[in-house]
């Protein structure tokens, strides 16, 4: 069940436990309560339909036929965040409401009210999170496939060497460049929050479209003139803006309905976390997180000043261990292991092997992960353990370049595709799958025979 369907179900339950059982309006059924920084309860719109957003004309279903794909379109394939979750149609049947569900909703509703009533100004604020700890079942430091002995360090070195002969040698930068206002990128900026939002915008779209979306934010909300986020978007202005304005700013980049909600929710959470950390510093609380207690006096005063000026920041993640930073990032709405790993790799400059759709495909063909068992998430956990740290940055970049440009390793090419006859530098190492790649898994035209 989707979030919007869940919200409607909750609203219906609330109406039924009230005298008279008056059904709630559609607008209220698509909203849920969220504690605001001032302790009041403000509505946060769920990912369901929103009357404030532009309506789209209904289109008739029609049959479609496959078309030839322009190679330039393939070259712009993104670091995918995964397919969108389909929404339930209005005709879907709902399960009968149980008494236990009514009781559960009543307890959750009362808990929300109690939290709003018990907050008093001056007391340390607790930052809210939207996800359960380790909801992706990540296994830091251990592979989910302990008996799978690939890749070995030698295999990683060989593939890195071969791909470098085609795509050039990749060396991780020693310093992070100044933020660009024309290229969104995948986290190659100094500000951690900036890197996170940029990477979110780059998901499930092309580089050109994500740049259009980012430029829309710059044009509508302006840029910061100073601080570590200098030259980038004023994220607090985005946080305070109506959802419709954020939607309008990024709509040219695609998926604006979903991404605008995610961005707003992330910025609200970051604001609350910043204020909660400020309160802990001001009160000299012994319950402060270890990274706060370790800060120098100047560092503490700087973080307090940033919070007082509503300068939204996640730069404290620099002081966390890689595993802790990953956990801190994936708790935000719309942020999965791939997006978080990109922020760790490109912004925090940690050795972290982010797995996107191109990397996942090629690693399966290389037999580096169990092809029939692995998902992008379990592949990330496995390869994070198996690939040597000094090769994670270069292999990440090389796999993406190769997956976008190689006539044989691109996702949608076949033996009749242009350039297929030129071969592939890792042909002898891969077993490509799929009908267009040559049929049988063990076909000599696919590359090497499958190893075990």
TrEMBL record:
Domain of life (superkingdom): Eukaryota
Domain HhH-GPD: 201-405
Coiled coil: none
Region (Disordered) residue spans: 1-90, 113-149
Pfam families per UniProt: HhH-GPD
Biased composition (Polar residues): 126-140
CDD domains: ENDO3c
Comp. bias regions, Low complexity: 1-15
Cleavable signal peptide: none
GO biological process: base-excision repair, AP site formation
Gene Ontology molecular-function annotations: oxidized base lesion DNA N-glycosylase activity
Name under which the protein is recorded: HhH-GPD family base excision DNA repair protein
Native source species: Aspergillus ibericus CBS 121593
């Amino acid at each position: 069940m989707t979030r919007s369907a869940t919200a409607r179900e909750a609203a219906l339950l609330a109406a039924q436990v009230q005298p008279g059982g008056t059904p709630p309006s559609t607008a209220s059924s698509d909203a849920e309560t969220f504690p605001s920084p001032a302790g009041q309860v403000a509505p946060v719109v769920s990912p369901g339909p929103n009357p404030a957003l532009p309506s789209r004309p209904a289109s008739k279903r029609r049959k479609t036929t496959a078309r030839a794909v322009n190679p330039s379109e393939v070259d712009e394939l993104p670091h995918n965040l995964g397919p969108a979750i389909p929404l339930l149609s209005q005709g879907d049947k709902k399960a009968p409401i149980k008494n236990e569900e009514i009781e559960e909703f009543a307890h959750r509703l009362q808990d929300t009210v109690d939290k709003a009533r018990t907050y008093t100004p001056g007391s340390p604020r607790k930052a809210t999170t939207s996800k359960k700890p380790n909801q992706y079942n990540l296994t830091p430091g251990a592979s989910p496939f302990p008996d799978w002995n690939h890749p070995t360090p030698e295999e990683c070195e060989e593939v890195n060497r071969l791909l470098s002969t085609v795509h050039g040698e990749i060396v991780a930068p020693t310093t992070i460049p100044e933020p660009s206002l024309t290229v969104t990128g995948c986290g190659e900026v100094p500000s951690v929050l900036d890197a996170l939002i940029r990477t979110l915008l780059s998901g499930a779209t092309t580089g050109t479209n994500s740049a259009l979306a980012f430029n829309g934010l710059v044009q509508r909300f302006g840029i910061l003139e100073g601080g570590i986020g200098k030259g980038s978007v004023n994220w607090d202005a985005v946080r305070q803006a109506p959802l419709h304005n954020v939607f309008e700013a990024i709509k040219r980049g695609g998926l604006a309905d979903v991404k605008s909600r995610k961005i707003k929710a992330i910025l609200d959470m970051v604001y609350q976390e910043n204020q909660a950390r400020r309160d802990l510093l001001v009160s000299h609380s012994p319950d402060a997180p270890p990274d706060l207690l370790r800060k120098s006096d100047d560092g503490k005063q700087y973080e307090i000043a940033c919070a007082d000026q509503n300068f939204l920041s996640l730069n404290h993640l620099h002081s966390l261990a890689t595993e802790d930073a990953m956990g801190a990032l994936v708790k935000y709405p719309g942020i999965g292991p791939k997006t978080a790993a990109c922020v760790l790799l490109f912004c925090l400059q940690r050795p972290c092997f982010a797995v996107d759709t191109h990397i996942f495909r090629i690693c399966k063909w290389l037999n580096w992960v169990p092809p029939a068992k692995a998902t992008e998430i379990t592949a990330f956990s496995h390869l994070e353990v198996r690939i040597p740290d000094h090769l994670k940055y270069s292999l990440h970049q090389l796999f993406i370049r190769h997956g976008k440009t190689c006539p044989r390793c691109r996702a949608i090419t076949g033996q009749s595709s242009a350039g297929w006859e030129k071969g592939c530098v890792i042909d002898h190492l891969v077993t490509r799958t799929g009908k267009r790649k040559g049929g049988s898994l063990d076909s000599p035209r696919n590359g090497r025979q499958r190893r075990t």
